[in-house]
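Hey L., structure's done. Input below.
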Amino acid sequence: MKFSTPVLLVGNGPVDAGAMALARPLCGAVVAADGGVQAALAHGVQPTAVIGDMDSCTPDVRQMSDIKITEISEQNSTDFEKCLGIINAPLIIGLGFLGGRLDHELAALNALVQSPQAVVLVGETDLVFRLPKTTHLTLPIRTRISTFPMGKVAGVTSTGLAWPLDGLTLAPDGQISTSNRTTAPDITLTNPDQPLLCILPRAHLPATLKRFIS
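Output:
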């Protein structure tokens, strides 16, 4: 399922109006992950496609002729993972994957660091993405920025942060790096292909996307 512009992917978790208003204008097509179609429709947004095992998709949605249903019945992956395996787009912005059930949120973050896709997940207060090899961001000074390792991480470097990441070994069961802040308008993070997440306030979604679509 190939797209030439950013895709809005809606999951079956909490989707608030503010997140939808922020993300929808930045995307072309809208795709739902299984029951996320109900969340999208509740905000007046009709997906062009629904992907998943269809255990949360209501019968009335299945009968909508202008929504393409891609049913994948296997249970070894989440609906989010199924979507990431099918969608081919320059960028995916995901709503409905943060907040709600903690196990679903953790599964989404686990999928996020394993996928080669460019994906930004947006929640009620924050956004999160996997740090690529090099990230340049322009943010207001004193912006809250956190990095969270989903595995052992070493060799990361940074500029423009109050507490530099250089020389640190990070791990989910060891040292992490949350609640950092920027000390300059332009910051740089390097990450040699490791499972490291970057978390920012969601108000900085436009600035974050410049890193992916510039």
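The first strand starts at residue 7 and ends at 10. DSSP finds six helices and 15 strands in the chain.

-- N.
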